[in-house]
């Protein structure tokens, strides 16, 4: 009996990317969301945003992540990692 399951090359390839963003205004959220929709993880440094814009951005990205079954984790005071479902972030 043969228990080997053949896998195509495409199934073996992973194209996991991590992109770092340091947005300077809220309108940068579109680019960040697009990267998440393309299955890239995103590290976001919010230090250059005012508090209200940073809160709005995190809220919007939480909605995007909910839709794609992703997660958001705080790495530091103003630094977050947003990851689609194909990424696993452990502490």
UniProtKB/TrEMBL annotation:
InterPro entries: Cell_div_SepF (IPR023052), Cell_div_SepF/SepF-rel (IPR007561), SepF-like_sf (IPR038594). It comes from the Bacteria. Keywords: Cell cycle, Cell division, Septation. Gene3D superfamilies: SepF-like protein. Pfam families: SepF. One of its GO terms (biological process) is cell division. Cell division protein that is part of the divisome complex and is recruited early to the Z-ring. Probably stimulates Z-ring formation, perhaps through the cross-linking of FtsZ protofilaments. Its function overlaps with FtsA. PANTHER family: CELL DIVISION PROTEIN SEPF. This is Cell division protein SepF. It comes from Lentilactobacillus raoultii.
């Amino acid at each position: 009996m043969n228990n080997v399951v053949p896998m195509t090359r495409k199934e073996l390839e992973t194209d996991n990317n991590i992109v770092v963003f340091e947005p300077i205004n809220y309108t940068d959220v579109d680019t960040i969301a697009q990267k998440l929709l393309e299955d890239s993880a995103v590290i976001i440094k919010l230090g250059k945003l005012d508090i209200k814009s940073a809160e709005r951005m995190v809220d919007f990205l939480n909605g995007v992540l909910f839709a794609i079954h992703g997660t958001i984790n705080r790495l530091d005071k103003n630094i977050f990692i947003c990851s689609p479902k194909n990424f696993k972030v452990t502490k």
